[in-house]
Design brief:
The protein is mainly α. It has one domain. The protein is about 75% helix and about 0% strand. Helix 1 runs antiparallel to helix 2, helix 2 packs antiparallel against helix 3 and helix 6 runs antiparallel to helix 8. The longest helix has 28 residues.
Length: about 260
């Protein structure tokens, strides 16, 4: 098979603002998913979200390089649709969160194994061919599904509640950085470990803000939380588009 045509790196530089926007998208996806499903019902909300996700990925794949609004639009839609899909396994099919967490972890492992066997790297700095971009987005979807199931497992099955769950993941997400600095954990492993943890971190706090006090939350409502988080994402992505602070370095592909 001939090698894929190479283009510019298709993902942003990993900066502090990357992690802020990423966590906001996970929280926004949780609130938006719950709002749409409760408002319109799963049979309507899930297919519609799936169509918008497909549109966002088409736009992302059509770009010859990284474009902030395209990339983050795709991430947001993965978050929204991924939440719906993961929740439907439990609510619609009755799959326990412990089972779905284990299955999604296995699925993500398979994605990484196949990706590495094909490309000999899992580095996001090398997302510069169509095939690598496919692997990247499949991995992103798997991390969202795993993170969603894990957050629900700790909050409901283990009985921690949304706030306590959020605090637990706020601590856990620091561990990859600590392990990288003090234990020699590789950059790629540290990145993907933190990436998975952003999902339950953001979703737990979004649920805590949205759900009523009877369920251990502040009762702001899914709609309000979704709108506020969406506006925050729009502002930050707009800032990135104007400043280009997360534009990938031209030498990243070689790395």
């Amino acid at each position: 098979m001939p090698p894929d045509r190479r283009w510019n790196v298709k993902v942003p530089e990993i900066t502090a603002i990357f992690w802020v926007v990423k966590i906001l998208t996970t929280a926004m996806g949780e609130a938006t998913s719950d709002f749409l499903v409760h408002r319109f019902g799963a049979p309507v909300a899930i297919p519609c979200a799936g169509v918008v996700l497909l549109v966002s990925l088409v736009l992302q794949f059509a770009a010859p390089g990284y474009v902030a609004w395209r990339y983050w639009f795709a991430v947001v839609m993965v978050s929204v649709f991924g939440t719906m899909a993961a929740d439907s396994l439990h609510v619609g099919l009755g799959v326990p969160y412990a089972v779905s967490t284990a299955c999604f972890a296995a699925a993500l492992t398979v994605v990484f194994v196949v990706w590495f066997a094909s490309e000999r790297t899992l580095s996001i700095h090398s997302i510069d061919t169509p095939r690598r971009e496919v692997f990247y987005w499949v991995a992103v979807m798997a991390t969202f599904a795993l993170g969603t199931a894990t957050g629900d497992l700790t909050a409901t099955t283990l009985g921690l509640g949304y706030l306590a769950s959020g605090l637990v993941f706020a601590v856990l997400i620091l561990l990859p950085a600590v392990a990288r600095r003090w234990l020699g954990l590789g950059e790629v492993a540290a990145f993907w470990a933190a990436y998975v943890l952003t999902r339950p971190l953001g979703a737990s706090f979004a649920d805590w803000l949205a759900v009523p006090p009877s369920r251990g939350g502040l009762g702001l409502g899914d709609g309000v939380v979704s709108i506020v988080l969406t506006l925050a994402i729009v502002v930050l992505v707009g800032y990135l588009m104007v400043t280009g602070r997360d534009a990938p370095d031209a030498g990243d592909a070689a790395g």
